[in-house]
Amino acid sequence: MCWSGILARTELPVGRDSVHDLAPVAGHGAGRPLGQRIRHGSRRGLVNHWLHPIREVYHRHELEAMPDERARLNRLCEMNVIRQVRNVASDIIARAAWARRQDLSIHGWLYSLAVGLIKDLGTTVRRPDEIGPLGG
After folding, report:
1. What is the CATH number for 72?
2. Closest residue by Cα to residue 101 from 20, 41, 31, 47
């Protein structure tokens, strides 16, 4: 989903103080086609717009140095979730909620397609001053 779509779905419930938890979630096990597209895919069109931030994470953290492709893609998913937690927490919607003293937590979760379990990445942000140390 594009960033503007996430913001549109977040603004109303957070603005009405009816949501207290947000969780960017990615799935482990998305497979090789995505990994190949991230490394070698076409850089044109809307798919490139969607993959560009993921490519940035991939190259910034030097994931190519990891010998196992599955481990590399799994780590990319984790790093992408961490980045999205930071993006959501840095946005005006979350900041306005915290300024109103609204109880809002943004969690980073990873869903494993192989085992069907959700893994908490330990990146929960509950206040603006918690955004910095996340990395990503």
Report:
1. 3.40.1050.10
2. 20
